Every structure is written in structure tokens, then in C-alpha cells.
Amino acid sequence: MLRKILIATLGAAGLLAAAPAQPVQAAGAGHIEHVNWSFEGVFGTFDQDQLHRGWQIWTGYCAMCHSLDYFAFRNLEQIGFSEEEVKEIAAEYTITDGPDDTGEMFDREGIPADYWPSPYANDEEATYINGALPPDLSVITKGRAGGPDYVYSYLLGFDDEPPEDQTVPAGSYWNSAAHMSVKMPPQIFEEMVIYEDGTKETPEQHAKDITAFLHWVAEPHLDERKGTGIVTMLFLLVLTALLYALKKQIWSRVEH
Transmembrane segments in this chain: where (predicted)? Predict the structure, then answer.
């Protein structure tokens, strides 16, 4: 029994230690730049200031074209917004609700329990306006090979000229991370927002901040899970040590 517990403990520790620090890049993908994220590794956590900066970019730019179907306003309390602030933010948005007693849908003021509303009435309207359907970004960092590194590289990956063997259709843009033509034009530029905390507003910083925010949206309980995992590992290690000491004490009384 003791041996099984020891093997399980060391095996779990080995899996954590062996986890790659850098996402695996899919074969045939474009140029993906690795970024040192604060939330990487067993002990990594989200940078709350960075999440606030990413929130600034999301509300000022990304939310105009993209949705966050799985993100509720109340989640903002996890990154330091007060309950009253969340209520005020939610109230700025109109939510289509219903049906009412007559079977009709109606509009109302948003509340913290509401999920982020789409900027479009339906997918057809979104496709017509943009030329292609803008993806929902709720889990974008988990739905792409390369994760946050891919999203960061994509945002900064708009080159003036595509490779010689590629032709970019009219109304499209070449992206070196996706290694293909895309409908979204370049979105990241210097001082696109003025940070309230004084952080320098470079394109690279903007891309890092919005990517970190989107990864938090996709993994809102990441810090909590890591904390639970660390406590569990410490418990197993202490338990293993106690059981080993108990075994030594018991067998020390037995003549060999």
C-alpha cells in the first residue's frame, strides 16, 4: 500500500515537472512566438493589473466585433471589480430577454448574472458586415494549437507583403501566424488605449494584455485549480513521509 502511494505521488510530481513550458506548434502552422506568461508553470498566476489592461482593450476594441458567449459580467469580481462596479458595467448593456407572459421577447438593462451580449443580432448579420463570421473568443486560447502564444502572434502577425507563393484576395489580409489570408484587418497599434496604471502602450504590450485577458476568460479558475493542486501534492508528500516513518517504526520491532 505504501509503495503504491509513493509511486502515485512521485508520478504526479513527475507529470507536473515534465509539462512543457512552451506549447507544441502544429505542423504547417505559421510563425508562433513564445511569450513568458505570468500564468505559466505550476506556480504561475494571472497578473491582475494585466487583466485590467486587457479589459480596457476588450471593451474599447474587440467587443465591437466579437462575442464572449461563456463570459458573465459577475466574473469581473474575480479580478478585483467590486459588486457595485460590476452592476454599473452590466447596466450599460441592453439584454434581449423573454419571452414575457404574452410570448414576446423584450429588452432590459443588463445585470451581473447576464452573459456578454453579442454585438450582432445573429450570425447572418455578423457575416454580412464583416465578410466572414467573427469567432466567439470565450475559449479562443484553448481552441488553437499554441494557445496564448498563437493569439499573441496572430495579433502581431500582419505583414505588408505575403510570401511569393501566396496571393491575398481583395478585402483580405495576410497573417504570418495563421499562414493564410484572413478577413480581419490589423487591430493592434501603438497607444490604441491609454493605460490607467502608466504601463507603456506598445503594440507588443497591447497584444500581451488582451491575450492574457482572453486566457483568463477561458480559464477563470486556473489560479484556484493550481492552488488546490499544490496543496494536494503537499498533502500527499507529507502523508507519504508519515506512512514511511510509521512503517520504519513498526518493522524496527520485528527481528529479521
Answer: 227-246
